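From the shared-data thread, chain only:
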Amino acid sequence: MPSPMSPQRSTQVFPPLSPPSSVTRTVFDNGVEAEISAIADRQCVPCDDSELLAASVRALRDALHVPKGIVVSVHDGIVVLDGRTSYYYERAAAECTVRFLDGVRAVENHILVEPPALAHDVHMRIADALLRTAAAEATQIAVHAVGGTVILQGVVHSPAEHDAAERAAWNVEGVRSVIDNLIVGA
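Structure, as tokens:
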């Protein structure tokens, strides 16, 4: 089972769209006449890698939900996406943007999804929140942040102070789990 911070990578083969191969005119029993398009299996349209690279860069630049800083490379019709983003939907948007360009044989998505806040930022935000919510106890609580996991250690004077410290940790952006090692003492 991959850890929450393991790189998310995928390779999928999506041939580009091709125009309909044939159109037939059909008259049904009730007299309705219709044109029916039969689309053959999509075929990969050969394209020069430099042209595909330019098209991919333009498409990523113009896409609404694709963050800046995504690096794209192309080799034999395989588009490789690299970079970092804070949200999964941005990673998916980058892949969808290039998937159906003419000449794309496959997409390798190596974009890493990282929490919006870094461990140091999480640590500082929790320390600030603890100072506001449990001022006297904040100096006796040690906060360790690794990725999106926060570890609280130390001694608090009451269950209410314990709950306030844990709530402060959970209310910080980027925290995905809290390990509570706080001790309620006298």
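Confidence is low (pLDDT under 50) at residues 14-21, 38-42.
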